[in-house]
Amino acid sequence: MVGSTEFLTGDSIPTNVNDRLHQLKTFDESKSGVKGLVDAGVTRLPPIFIRPPEELAAENSERNETPFSIPVVDLGDLPGAVDAVRRAAEEVGFFQVVNHGIPGGVLEAMLVAARGFHELPMEMKREYYSREMGRKVKYMSNFDLYKSKAANWRDTLFCVMGPESFDPQELPLVCRDITMEYSDKVHKLGTTLFQLLSQVLELKPDHLIGMDCAKGHVVLSHYYPPCPEPQLTMGTTKHSDPDFLTILLQDHVGGLQVLWQNRWIDVPPVPGALVVNIGDLLQI
Model pTM? Predict the structure, then answer.
Protein backbone atom coordinates (compact mmCIF):
# COMPACT_ATOMS: atom_id res chain seq x y z
CA MET A 1 0.00 0.00 0.00
CA VAL A 2 1.22 3.48 -0.78
CA GLY A 3 1.36 6.00 2.02
CA SER A 4 -1.40 8.40 1.02
CA THR A 5 -5.17 7.95 1.11
CA GLU A 6 -5.52 10.84 -1.32
CA PHE A 7 -3.29 9.06 -3.79
CA LEU A 8 -5.11 5.78 -3.45
CA THR A 9 -8.56 7.19 -4.03
CA GLY A 10 -7.59 9.46 -6.92
CA ASP A 11 -9.96 12.12 -5.64
CA SER A 12 -7.66 15.02 -6.51
CA ILE A 13 -5.88 15.90 -9.72
CA PRO A 14 -2.31 17.25 -9.32
CA THR A 15 -2.45 21.01 -9.75
CA ASN A 16 1.25 21.55 -10.37
CA VAL A 17 4.50 19.78 -11.11
CA ASN A 18 5.38 19.40 -7.42
CA ASP A 19 2.07 17.67 -6.66
CA ARG A 20 2.62 15.20 -9.49
CA LEU A 21 6.23 14.55 -8.51
CA HIS A 22 5.15 13.86 -4.92
CA GLN A 23 2.57 11.33 -6.11
CA LEU A 24 5.07 9.67 -8.44
CA LYS A 25 7.61 9.32 -5.62
CA THR A 26 4.98 7.99 -3.23
CA PHE A 27 4.01 5.35 -5.77
CA ASP A 28 7.60 4.47 -6.70
CA GLU A 29 8.94 4.33 -3.16
CA SER A 30 6.16 1.96 -2.11
CA LYS A 31 7.90 -0.65 -4.33
CA SER A 32 4.47 -2.19 -4.74
CA GLY A 33 3.78 -1.38 -8.38
CA VAL A 34 0.38 -1.27 -9.99
CA LYS A 35 -0.46 -4.67 -8.49
CA GLY A 36 0.00 -3.06 -5.06
CA LEU A 37 -2.67 -0.47 -5.87
CA VAL A 38 -5.07 -3.23 -6.92
CA ASP A 39 -4.34 -5.20 -3.76
CA ALA A 40 -4.97 -2.02 -1.73
CA GLY A 41 -8.47 -1.86 -3.20
CA VAL A 42 -8.36 1.27 -5.39
CA THR A 43 -11.72 2.00 -6.98
CA ARG A 44 -10.68 5.10 -8.93
CA LEU A 45 -7.64 5.62 -11.11
CA PRO A 46 -4.83 7.53 -9.34
CA PRO A 47 -4.20 10.83 -11.18
CA ILE A 48 -0.67 9.94 -12.33
CA PHE A 49 -2.18 7.26 -14.61
CA ILE A 50 -4.83 9.45 -16.25
CA ARG A 51 -3.93 10.29 -19.83
CA PRO A 52 -4.50 13.79 -21.30
CA PRO A 53 -7.90 14.01 -23.05
CA GLU A 54 -6.31 15.08 -26.34
CA GLU A 55 -4.21 11.89 -26.44
CA LEU A 56 -7.22 9.68 -25.87
CA ALA A 57 -9.20 11.54 -28.54
CA ALA A 58 -6.36 11.28 -31.08
CA GLU A 59 -5.93 7.54 -30.63
CA ASN A 60 -9.65 6.90 -30.77
CA SER A 61 -9.70 8.64 -34.16
CA GLU A 62 -6.99 6.23 -35.41
CA ARG A 63 -9.03 3.10 -34.82
CA ASN A 64 -9.19 0.84 -37.85
CA GLU A 65 -12.45 -0.56 -39.19
CA THR A 66 -10.93 -2.23 -42.26
CA PRO A 67 -10.29 -5.97 -41.77
CA PHE A 68 -6.54 -6.67 -41.77
CA SER A 69 -4.53 -9.58 -40.45
CA ILE A 70 -0.89 -9.54 -39.40
CA PRO A 71 0.99 -12.01 -41.69
CA VAL A 72 1.63 -15.48 -40.28
CA VAL A 73 4.93 -17.09 -41.33
CA ASP A 74 5.38 -20.87 -41.21
CA LEU A 75 9.00 -21.54 -40.25
CA GLY A 76 8.48 -25.21 -41.09
CA ASP A 77 8.71 -24.15 -44.74
CA LEU A 78 12.02 -22.26 -44.84
CA PRO A 79 12.08 -21.54 -48.62
CA GLY A 80 8.58 -20.09 -48.40
CA ALA A 81 9.41 -18.35 -45.14
CA VAL A 82 12.02 -16.13 -46.83
CA ASP A 83 9.45 -14.69 -49.23
CA ALA A 84 6.82 -14.41 -46.49
CA VAL A 85 9.21 -12.56 -44.15
CA ARG A 86 10.26 -10.24 -47.00
CA ARG A 87 6.67 -9.21 -47.68
CA ALA A 88 5.81 -8.82 -43.99
CA ALA A 89 8.95 -6.80 -43.19
CA GLU A 90 8.47 -4.49 -46.17
CA GLU A 91 4.73 -3.95 -45.91
CA VAL A 92 3.88 -4.24 -42.20
CA GLY A 93 7.00 -4.51 -40.02
CA PHE A 94 5.28 -7.19 -37.96
CA PHE A 95 4.49 -10.87 -38.46
CA GLN A 96 3.62 -13.94 -36.42
CA VAL A 97 5.64 -17.16 -36.60
CA VAL A 98 4.35 -20.72 -36.22
CA ASN A 99 6.25 -24.02 -36.31
CA HIS A 100 9.13 -22.13 -34.70
CA GLY A 101 10.46 -25.07 -32.72
CA ILE A 102 9.50 -23.91 -29.21
CA PRO A 103 7.09 -26.43 -27.62
CA GLY A 104 3.69 -25.13 -26.62
CA GLY A 105 4.30 -26.41 -23.09
CA VAL A 106 7.31 -24.12 -22.74
CA LEU A 107 5.31 -21.10 -23.91
CA GLU A 108 2.45 -21.84 -21.53
CA ALA A 109 4.82 -22.47 -18.62
CA MET A 110 6.53 -19.12 -19.26
CA LEU A 111 3.20 -17.30 -19.12
CA VAL A 112 2.25 -19.07 -15.89
CA ALA A 113 5.63 -18.28 -14.32
CA ALA A 114 5.49 -14.60 -15.32
CA ARG A 115 2.06 -14.27 -13.73
CA GLY A 116 3.31 -16.23 -10.74
CA PHE A 117 6.05 -13.70 -10.05
CA HIS A 118 3.79 -10.66 -10.33
CA GLU A 119 1.21 -12.25 -8.05
CA LEU A 120 3.71 -13.08 -5.30
CA PRO A 121 3.14 -11.43 -1.89
CA MET A 122 4.47 -7.87 -1.98
CA GLU A 123 7.18 -8.49 0.62
CA MET A 124 8.69 -11.17 -1.64
CA LYS A 125 8.78 -8.92 -4.72
CA ARG A 126 10.13 -5.78 -3.08
CA GLU A 127 13.71 -7.09 -2.95
CA TYR A 128 13.73 -7.06 -6.76
CA TYR A 129 12.25 -3.55 -7.15
CA SER A 130 14.91 -1.24 -8.58
CA ARG A 131 15.72 1.43 -11.17
CA GLU A 132 19.46 0.75 -11.14
CA MET A 133 20.71 0.70 -14.72
CA GLY A 134 23.36 -1.97 -14.10
CA ARG A 135 21.14 -4.46 -12.31
CA LYS A 136 20.47 -7.55 -14.45
CA VAL A 137 17.24 -8.66 -12.77
CA LYS A 138 14.79 -6.08 -11.52
CA TYR A 139 11.10 -5.49 -11.12
CA MET A 140 9.58 -2.05 -11.60
CA SER A 141 6.55 -0.16 -12.80
CA ASN A 142 7.10 2.06 -15.87
CA PHE A 143 10.62 2.56 -17.21
CA ASP A 144 9.85 6.25 -17.86
CA LEU A 145 7.75 6.88 -14.75
CA TYR A 146 9.22 10.35 -14.09
CA LYS A 147 9.25 11.46 -17.74
CA SER A 148 5.97 10.36 -19.29
CA LYS A 149 2.82 12.48 -19.33
CA ALA A 150 0.88 9.61 -17.77
CA ALA A 151 2.05 6.37 -16.22
CA ASN A 152 1.03 3.06 -17.79
CA TRP A 153 -1.05 0.55 -15.84
CA ARG A 154 1.72 -2.05 -15.98
CA ASP A 155 4.44 -3.76 -13.92
CA THR A 156 7.50 -5.44 -15.46
CA LEU A 157 10.10 -8.03 -14.50
CA PHE A 158 13.26 -7.12 -16.45
CA CYS A 159 15.97 -9.77 -17.01
CA VAL A 160 19.18 -9.11 -18.97
CA MET A 161 20.11 -12.59 -20.21
CA GLY A 162 23.16 -11.72 -22.33
CA PRO A 163 25.70 -11.19 -23.73
CA GLU A 164 27.61 -11.39 -20.41
CA SER A 165 27.40 -14.62 -18.43
CA PHE A 166 24.30 -14.85 -16.29
CA ASP A 167 23.83 -16.45 -12.88
CA PRO A 168 20.38 -18.14 -12.77
CA GLN A 169 20.31 -17.63 -8.99
CA GLU A 170 19.62 -13.94 -9.64
CA LEU A 171 16.20 -14.88 -11.01
CA PRO A 172 13.21 -15.25 -8.66
CA LEU A 173 12.68 -18.90 -7.77
CA VAL A 174 9.07 -18.90 -8.99
CA CYS A 175 10.17 -18.31 -12.59
CA ARG A 176 13.85 -19.30 -12.58
CA ASP A 177 14.01 -22.58 -14.46
CA ILE A 178 11.45 -21.80 -17.13
CA THR A 179 12.91 -18.34 -17.79
CA MET A 180 16.31 -19.91 -18.48
CA GLU A 181 14.76 -22.53 -20.78
CA TYR A 182 12.52 -20.03 -22.58
CA SER A 183 15.40 -17.59 -22.96
CA ASP A 184 17.62 -20.22 -24.53
CA LYS A 185 14.97 -21.33 -27.02
CA VAL A 186 13.94 -17.80 -27.97
CA HIS A 187 17.58 -16.82 -28.52
CA LYS A 188 17.94 -19.73 -30.94
CA LEU A 189 14.75 -18.63 -32.70
CA GLY A 190 16.15 -15.10 -32.94
CA THR A 191 19.26 -16.48 -34.62
CA THR A 192 17.07 -18.27 -37.18
CA LEU A 193 15.11 -15.08 -37.84
CA PHE A 194 18.31 -13.06 -38.37
CA GLN A 195 19.44 -15.69 -40.89
CA LEU A 196 16.13 -15.34 -42.72
CA LEU A 197 16.28 -11.56 -42.64
CA SER A 198 19.83 -11.63 -44.00
CA GLN A 199 18.55 -13.63 -46.97
CA VAL A 200 15.66 -11.21 -47.36
CA LEU A 201 18.27 -8.44 -47.69
CA GLU A 202 20.11 -10.60 -50.28
CA LEU A 203 23.09 -11.02 -47.97
CA LYS A 204 24.86 -14.13 -46.68
CA PRO A 205 22.77 -15.95 -44.03
CA ASP A 206 25.25 -15.10 -41.26
CA HIS A 207 25.56 -11.39 -42.13
CA LEU A 208 23.32 -9.92 -39.42
CA ILE A 209 24.64 -12.38 -36.85
CA GLY A 210 28.16 -11.30 -37.79
CA MET A 211 27.12 -7.73 -36.95
CA ASP A 212 26.28 -8.96 -33.41
CA CYS A 213 22.54 -8.42 -33.89
CA ALA A 214 21.90 -11.59 -31.88
CA LYS A 215 24.65 -11.05 -29.32
CA GLY A 216 22.57 -9.91 -26.34
CA HIS A 217 18.95 -10.23 -25.34
CA VAL A 218 16.54 -9.25 -22.59
CA VAL A 219 13.43 -11.04 -21.32
CA LEU A 220 10.64 -8.72 -20.16
CA SER A 221 7.58 -10.09 -18.37
CA HIS A 222 4.81 -7.49 -18.41
CA TYR A 223 1.79 -7.69 -16.11
CA TYR A 224 -1.45 -5.73 -16.54
CA PRO A 225 -3.72 -6.20 -13.50
CA PRO A 226 -7.44 -5.33 -13.62
CA CYS A 227 -7.96 -1.56 -13.85
CA PRO A 228 -10.85 0.32 -12.17
CA GLU A 229 -11.14 2.89 -15.00
CA PRO A 230 -9.47 1.41 -18.11
CA GLN A 231 -10.92 4.06 -20.42
CA LEU A 232 -8.65 6.67 -18.81
CA THR A 233 -5.27 4.94 -19.13
CA MET A 234 -3.27 2.41 -21.15
CA GLY A 235 -1.32 -0.73 -20.37
CA THR A 236 1.34 0.24 -22.91
CA THR A 237 1.22 3.53 -24.81
CA LYS A 238 2.24 4.13 -28.42
CA HIS A 239 5.95 3.38 -28.92
CA SER A 240 8.54 1.71 -31.13
CA ASP A 241 11.08 -0.86 -29.94
CA PRO A 242 14.71 0.41 -29.69
CA ASP A 243 16.26 -2.92 -30.68
CA PHE A 244 17.00 -5.13 -33.68
CA LEU A 245 14.15 -7.56 -33.14
CA THR A 246 11.39 -8.17 -30.61
CA ILE A 247 9.82 -11.61 -30.15
CA LEU A 248 6.56 -11.32 -28.22
CA LEU A 249 4.59 -14.05 -26.46
CA GLN A 250 0.95 -13.07 -25.90
CA ASP A 251 -1.40 -14.68 -23.43
CA HIS A 252 -5.00 -15.51 -24.37
CA VAL A 253 -6.36 -12.12 -23.25
CA GLY A 254 -5.08 -10.14 -26.22
CA GLY A 255 -5.18 -6.36 -26.49
CA LEU A 256 -2.03 -5.92 -28.60
CA GLN A 257 -2.32 -3.42 -31.45
CA VAL A 258 0.15 -2.26 -34.10
CA LEU A 259 0.08 0.96 -36.11
CA TRP A 260 -0.32 0.25 -39.83
CA GLN A 261 -1.02 2.98 -42.38
CA ASN A 262 -1.99 5.37 -39.57
CA ARG A 263 -4.56 2.95 -38.18
CA TRP A 264 -4.40 0.70 -35.11
CA ILE A 265 -4.70 -2.97 -36.03
CA ASP A 266 -5.62 -5.66 -33.51
CA VAL A 267 -3.22 -8.60 -33.23
CA PRO A 268 -5.39 -11.37 -31.79
CA PRO A 269 -3.47 -14.21 -30.10
CA VAL A 270 -2.81 -17.24 -32.29
CA PRO A 271 -2.30 -20.41 -30.19
CA GLY A 272 1.37 -21.38 -30.26
CA ALA A 273 2.44 -18.36 -32.33
CA LEU A 274 4.96 -15.64 -31.47
CA VAL A 275 4.76 -12.05 -32.70
CA VAL A 276 7.89 -10.60 -34.33
CA ASN A 277 8.56 -6.86 -34.60
CA ILE A 278 11.27 -5.35 -36.79
CA GLY A 279 12.95 -2.98 -34.30
CA ASP A 280 14.32 0.53 -34.78
CA LEU A 281 17.97 -0.55 -35.09
CA LEU A 282 17.25 -3.10 -37.82
CA GLN A 283 15.16 -0.55 -39.73
CA ILE A 284 18.08 1.88 -39.60
Answer: 0.90
